[in-house]
Amino acid sequence: PSIPSPLSSRAADQLRVELQRSHEGKPPILPLWSMADGRRKLHRDSIALHPDWPIIPYASAVESMAVHQAPVAVVQPRSPAARAFAGLWAAVEAELRKN
User: Fold this and answer.
1) Is 49 within 8 Å of 86 (Cβ atoms)?
2) d(CA 79, CA 30)
3) How many whole angstroms separate alpha carbon 15 and alpha carbon 10?
4) Which pLDDT does position 63 carry in this prediction?
5) What letter would DSSP give residue 57?
6) What is d(CA 83, CA 63) in angstroms, rounded to the nearest whole number?
7) Which of 72, 77, 31 is nearest to 55 (CA)?
8) 94 CB contacts (<8 Å, ≥6 apart)?
9) Residue 72, SS3 per DSSP
């Protein structure tokens, strides 16, 4: 997970390079944007560089998971955050089917 910012993108790129260097072959990597806030220009600009990455929004529904000690799909199943997590799992399943 990366917060949509140049610093986080740089760290993710460095991590990807290190993982590929230190592991035989190329391990599957599924980057995603986390705590994305569409009101922030920096976030929008960063997301535009990798629009295919799944996006988990910055939302109170996500933060409430810790309070309720339950997944957002249980706490607020119709929220945009719950839909985002469902999309993330679909992307993970699709990646696993490739391998």
Assistant:
1) no
2) 23
3) 9
4) 87
5) E
6) 15
7) 31
8) none
9) helix
SS3 36: strand
pTM of model > 0.85: no
**Which two tokens mark 67?**
């309070």
**Tokens describing residue 66:** 């810790």
pLDDT at 4 over 80: yes
If you search the block for the tokens 């998971």, which residue do you land on? 65
Q: Convert the pLDDT of each residue in 34-86 to its tens digit.
A: 999 999 999 999 999 989 889 999 998 888 888 999 999 999 999 999 999 99
Distance, in Å, from the CA atom of 63 to the CA atom of 80, rounded to the nearest integer, reads 13
Predicted confidence band of residue 99 (pLDDT cuts 50, 70, 90): low
